[in-house]
Amino acid sequence: MTGNFAPDAPSAPDAPVTFRPPSQTGAPLLEEVRQWFATYICTMTEADLDLLTLWAVHTHVATETYTTPRLLIDSPVPGSGKTTVLEHLSRLCLNAVQMASLSSPALLVRMLDVGMRTILIDEADRSLNPAKEGIAELYAVLNTGYKKGGSRPVLVPVKGGSWEAQEMSTFSPVAMAGNAPQLPDDTRERVIRVLLLPDVLGVVQESDWELIDDPAKELGARIVAWTDEVRDFIRANRPPLPEIVKGRARERWSPLMRVATAAGGRWPEAVRQLAIHDVERIQLEREEGIVQEKPAIALLQHTINIWPEEKNFISTASLIDRLIQNHPKTWGAESAFGKPLTAQRLGKMLVTSFNVHSIRPDREGPRGYSKVSFEKVWRGMGITRAGSDDPLKVTGASGATGASGAETAQLEIPDPLVIPEPIAAFVCTICRSETAFTLQKTDAGMACRKCHGANR
């Protein structure tokens, strides 16, 4: 086993083995790496130096951390030192390679299949422009390679002069530098960001590689030595993160927390604060309109906010009017779509994203939507009314007390009671269509009004 620490004896034959932390923590080494970055890099905040340090070190144990967050080195203006950061990372990270030196994504995948590399991408605002020809293949590599086991099929020659597809690994740490690059959503949600500023006050030193190349590589070698010592500890331990750090955010920050826990000292708390700030920043940007939610998700939140609590059905026209009136920049003529929301566009979003269909309660009345059809989606997506911290209190199909749909379906409905308001989604026992309105009890069970009339 690698490392200078021993496993604790299991309390039972089948109990998992856990590892004691190394007696010598890596906190002093991480502080030294941080000071190295502080000497040559001007960041927006001091915490960004912690982030650079942890990310550089984690590349040496990415296999043990299972996921590897993409690092975005961002700045508001050119000349802030983004390329300089990549130069330092190339000496401190695991087997770094500049993407500019590779001829194609296929070559990158072949290289990664041989062994782990840290990919460094400069001028990401141009080299990763979504409109660039052939960029989809590179994004596929970047997005699949953030988690251990990620792979892409690559054509390889076989005997007889033919070709066959072979799955090759794409798992690798990636650092991207650019001026606010326009990354796709699925790439951005895997990213943690460091923000640089121009050194207008002259507080950082110039990176004169003729003088500092050897010291940088020596520091990199010490990182290798320490990560080799704690590799098994990092693999065996999954320290907790704050409760609000969930889902994709947890995948971003868990690798750095594992490194920080192995190092000890102030570093675990530093990661906790970085992760909380990251989650809160994304939420604030979403609230301020900087980060745009997908239209279908915004539609869910807006519908629950504008839906009249006492109504179990709302016509399509009324729903659209309410959406436009309350959110004109999203659904009105001012929207990015360039024209007001239409019934066709509304229906397409609801059907394709959530399988919510419009209905016509009255044969001669308007089409619209039942609250029943929205409630399961609201619950499943964790959507609540604005200003409420409580889970969705269901009305209509599940009753004012939040009873489940299954409980509602078991309610006794005396014959020949007609239910004037939609209170549940039932399946007609005759035509098998789902309905949420004007149900009548027959000998065969619950029937829609059409079938009930035909079978009198």
UniProtKB/TrEMBL annotation:
Residues 215-379 form the DUF3631 domain. Residues 1-16 have a biased composition (Low complexity). InterPro entries: DUF3631. Residues 1-24 are annotated as: Disordered. This is DUF3631 domain-containing protein. It comes from Nakamurella antarctica. The lineage of its organism: Bacteria, Bacillati, Actinomycetota, Actinomycetes, Nakamurellales.
